[in-house]
């Protein structure tokens, strides 16, 4: 049959990544790592067929993850990665490919150009692998201290895909069966096969830890975009200042409320809670609870921020409008913006505070109180 086939190795249990699910079946941006990695080869015009090697217990996960992707039927893997690759290679004996590309399912960002380059390199070489040059200075460690500096000149970090002439790598794997070699290039090297290096990209990293999953999600910007709105009103009463957005603004009245009556922070807090469907400020901080008497509302906003972060959420923008005839808000907008950004540990460029009057109409127009409305936009639940 000839042509170039791909073997995607997805048989590991991924115990280094937390959770019950093997890492190749974890999702980023709504697609599993396996769907992304296997799909990259299935979509590549230079690849004649894609065989995924799976753990025998993962068939249901595999079927769900690869629905709609044009793949050969999967084959069960062995007790080690090396054995799984060997089983995958043997499963292609009928197809008799000219060459084969072996790829880790946990590298979801394999670029089509890298696949093309590895296939191209096999015109002139028996083996060729994706790799990146080492740019960091390398240190030899001994008991937690530097024992020496390793010359990085000529050092590369091996990635996948690793491509080979099919007959050569099948024979090399057969000869290395039972050994514990770190990758297929090492199997080829052991057999005396010359392996070329094809420069790849940092993005083709292997997802091993939860931090790697977060990095992968940041790269694709995955997750739901959610929007919430908040609205709040407080009535004027006796006093000589009002709290708005965590700033004390001098005024000939105060605002009445159980807490510090900061309508601006209350509207923002409700908008954030709304975006993650966590109810409203009263649910988290009941007004009848004496511990919130005269409480600084920064506490409420900070709590909403914690709830967003607990969902791997990222606040994209906050937009607040304060509605009153007096006091004048304009002179305090910069301080209010900075304070909100500080409470949430946000870039101030993501916080908007503005003000309007109601042309002396309604309760705000008559100077009976201050209203505030807010919209929060965030990325959550990746
Ligand atoms: Mg309120």
What features would you describe in this structure?
Helix content is 30%, strand content 29%. The relative contact order is 0.11. The strands form five sheets. It has a seven-stranded mixed sheet, sandwiched between helices. The mean pLDDT is 94. It is of the alpha/beta class and 382 residues long. The longest helix is centred in the C-terminal third of the chain and has 13 residues, at 263-275. It starts with a strand and ends with a strand. The chain has two domains: 4-220, Spore Coat Polysaccharide Biosynthesis Protein SpsA, Chain A (Alpha-Beta Complex); 224-380, 2-C-methyl-D-erythritol 2,4-cyclodiphosphate synthase (60s Ribosomal Protein L30, Chain: A), CATH 3.30.1330. It is built from twelve helices and 18 strands. The protein binds magnesium ion. Residues 232, 234, 257, 263, 266 line the site of magnesium ion (MG). Magnesium ion (MG) is lined by residues 232, 234, 257, 263, 266.
């Amino acid at each position: 049959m000839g042509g170039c086939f791909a073997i995607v190795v997805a048989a590991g249990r991924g115990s280094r990544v937390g959770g019950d699910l093997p890492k190749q079946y974890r999702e980023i941006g709504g697609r599993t790592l396996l769907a992304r990695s296997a799909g990259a080869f299935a979509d590549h015009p230079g690849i004649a067929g894609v065989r995924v090697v799976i753990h025998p217990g993962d068939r249901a996960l595999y079927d769900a993850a690869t629905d709609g992707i044009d793949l050969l039927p999967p084959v069960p893997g062995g007790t080690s990665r090396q054995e799984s690759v060997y089983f995958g290679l043997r499963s292609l004996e009928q197809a008799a490919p000219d060459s084969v590309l072996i790829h880790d399912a946990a590298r979801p960002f394999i670029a089509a150009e890298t696949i093309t380059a590895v296939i191209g390199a096999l015109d002139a070489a028996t083996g060729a692998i994706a790799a990146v040059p080492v740019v960091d200075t390398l240190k030899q460690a001994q008991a937690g201290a530097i024992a020496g500096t390793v010359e990085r000149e000529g050092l590369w970090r091996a990635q996948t895909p690793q491509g080979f002439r099919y007959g050569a790598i099948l024979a090399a794997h057969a000869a290395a069966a039972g050994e514990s070699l770190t990758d297929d290039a090492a199997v080829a090297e052991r057999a005396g096969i010359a392996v070329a290096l094809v420069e790849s990209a940092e993005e083709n990293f292997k997802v091993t830890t939860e931090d790697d999953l977060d990095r992968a999600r940041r790269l694709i910007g995955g997750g739901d975009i959610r929007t919430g709105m908040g609205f709040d009103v407080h009535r004027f009463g006796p006093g000589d200042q009002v709290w708005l957005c965590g700033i004390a603004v001098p005024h000939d009245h105060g605002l009445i409320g159980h807490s510090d009556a900061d309508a601006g922070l209350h509207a923002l807090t409700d908008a954030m809670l709304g975006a993650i469907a966590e109810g409203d400020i009263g649910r988290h901080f009941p007004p009848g609870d004496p511990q919130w008497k005269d409480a600084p509302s920064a506490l409420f906003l900070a709590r909403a921020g914690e709830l967003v972060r607990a969902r791997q959420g990222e606040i994209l923008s906050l937009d607040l409008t304060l509605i009153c005839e007096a006091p004048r808000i304009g002179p305090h907008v910069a301080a209010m913006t900075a304070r909100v950004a500080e409470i949430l540990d946000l870039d101030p460029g993501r916080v908007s505070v503005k003000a309007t009057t109601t042309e002396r109409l309604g309760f705000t127009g008559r100077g009976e109180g201050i209203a505030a409305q807010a919209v929060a936009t965030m990325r959550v639940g990746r």
